[in-house]
Every structure is written in C-alpha cells, then in structure tokens.
Amino acid sequence: MAKKSSTCHPSPHRRTLLVTYPRTASNLLIKMLSLEDQDKVVSNEKGGYFFWDSFLKGRTTMSTFTPAENWTREQIEEMQQVFQQDFSDLEIKSRLAESQGKVFFGKEHIQWFTDPAINSSTTSPINITIPSSYNTATGFSANNPTIFPDGYLATWRLTFLIRHPALAFPSFYRAMRHLESEDFAESHEIQPMMELNTTLRWTRQLYNWCCEHKIGYDSGLPLPLILDAEDVIHSPKVVIKYADLIGLDPARVRFEWEAGIAKSPETIMKATIDNSSSILKDKTPALVDISLERRGWDLEFGEIFGRQMEKWVRDAMPDYDYLRARRLQT
C-alpha cells in the first residue's frame, strides 16, 4: 500500500515512461530520439533508469535473489529507503518539466519497478510515499504488477518497447558474463538474474492494465504505444512517428552519431550502441528461427544452458506475439 505526502504534481500525460526489459535496444532508441537536443523535453543523463540505484541495492543486499517473504528487517529498510529516494528523484525531474511547460521522458526496465512480492502471498515490503496532491486512490488492481498504485500510474503515459526473446535473452546472458569478467557481477548472480529477466509476463500485464484503465491512448490510436526493436532497426521511421505522438520534435530524431566508450557497468550494458556510429541491422534480424538459434546457443553456451535458453524463449513467445501484434507501425 502506498502512502501520501504533500506537493504538486504534473498534469496527466505530460510525461512519458518507456517500459522496457534488458537488451531491447532501448539505448539505441534513446540515442535516436536525441533527448539532449530536444528543446521541449526534460529527462536525465541516462534518458531514464531512475531506479538504477534500487536495482544495484537489490543486488548488493541480495534482496533481488531472496523471496520477499524472507527479507530481513535490514533488507526491507534498505530497499524501502533506496526505492523512496529514486522515486523522489523521478518526481523532482518530473515537476521541473511541468514547471517549464515541457514534456518529461523516462525509461525503466519493468523488472526494476515490479512489486518484489508479486510471486508471493505476502504483503509488499515496499511502500512508496505518494505526494498527497495527486489526490488519487492508493489501491492496486489485479493487473497492476508494479510498486505504484493505480492512481499514480494513471498520471503517466506508459509506452512499451519489446524485442524478440530469442535475441534479447541470449544478449542479456552475454552481457551478464561480460559484467562478471570485468568484476562488475558475481557468478552466483547470473542464474537468478536470468530467471528474473527472461519473461514478458509483467510487460504484458502492465500493458493490459493500460488497456483496462485507458492509459496511454491517443486520438486515432486505439491502443497504448508499443515499439518493437525490429521496427526501430529495420523501419526506423517508426521512431519519428513515436516521437511525434509523445510530444517530442520528430525533426530531432537521428540515425547516425559519433562512437565512443568508457568502461563501467553501465557502458558494458551499452557497449553495442556506444561502439557504433549508426543503426546495426544485423543485431536484430527480421526473421528469427528459434530451432536454428538453439544450435548456436549449444555451441556458445553449452548444450545444458542452450536447452534452458530455448525454454525461456519459447515460454516467453506467447506474450511477445501478443504484444507484437499490437505494436506501432508506419
């Protein structure tokens, strides 16, 4: 259950949250949107990821890998504090945009703001204090998988970015192994992180919540906006359309940039885009054969993990196909 405090809040749909999951080419999309060159947009230097610190704290406290019902008092206190601070930072930026008459844009991996107790019968250990001026109910409906109550979510335009599981999931595993090799991740983290990030269940659930509550709708568009990484890469004009629909300047969208990279956990996850100077179409082929991909996984990861990867991918396909059928197209 969320609490309330007192402050002002932005008007509905003056702010957009791009809901992603790891390795969906979200960094490419942010690069193409040129947020830093958008005169009427406020974001942060990452183009989102306001809950990055919460994600890191979940790892260092082992909360991410511990069922919510087994969290210690110390874990609850630490996670509550960091979630609340990240939320406050998000609200500060959002209010800044509102005060300047600008659009606020952020992106977030769905896993980073999903209720930690979503797979448990226990009450959520996270209780975000919501500004009282939102004057919204603090309840959670069945389709809301997040730490935010319905009334607060309704003040956002939620949009979505998806990518074929057979491309996103192996890419995430490679990135995790790279993080491990650079001492930015521990070996014991990889399997539970894969389990957490190889599903589109929460993405689909939140999308359905938007449909149920009529959040993120535009005149002439019957559904909340979904982008597929395949279209972003192979039909990039869809990014121009997306930018226009959420209040960004479509003329600022770019398809080329200067390459450059420094080493850190964040840049390892962004290595592909930071090392490129344009859209790399080979990273997201238009046609994906899971059985053929499986052969490559067996060679790259070993047969046992290749089999597990195939299961994760096939289990996620119904949700991916459901969302892809509703995507924005040119």
Architecture blueprint of SSEs:
Blueprint: E1 3-5, E2 15-20, H1 26-33, E3 41-42, H2 52-60, H3 73-99, E4 103-109, E5 129-131, H4 150-153, E6 157-162, H5 165-181, H6 187-197, H7 201-213, E7 226-228, H8 229-234, H9 237-245, H10 265-269, H11 271-274, H12 290-301, H13 303-324
Parallel strand pairs: 1-5, 2-4, 2-6, 3-4, 6-7
Helix pairs in contact: 2-3, 5-6, 5-13, 7-13, 12-13
Overall shape: globular
- DSSP strand tally: 7
- The average pLDDT score comes to 89
Measured as a percent range, the helix fraction is 40-55%
Would you write up a description of this structure?
- The chain has helices at 26-33, 52-60, 73-99, 150-153, 165-181, 187-197, 201-213, 229-234, 237-245, 265-269, 271-274, 290-301, 303-324, and strands spanning 3-5, 15-20, 41-42, 103-109, 129-131, 157-162, 226-228.
- It has 330 residues and is α/β, with parallel strands linked by helices.
- The protein has one domain (15-325): Rossmann fold.
- The strands form 2 sheets. A 5-stranded parallel sheet has the order 3-4-2-6-7, with helices on both faces.
- It is globular.
- The termini are far apart.
- The mean pLDDT is 89.
- This is P-loop containing nucleoside triphosphate hydrolase protein.
Supply database-style keywords:
P-loop containing nucleoside triphosphate hydrolase protein; 330 residues; P-loop_NTPase; alpha/beta; 13 helices; 9% strand; Pyrrolopyrazine_biosynth_F; Rossmann fold
Short structural summary:
With 330 residues, the protein is an alpha/beta fold. The protein has 13 helices and seven strands.
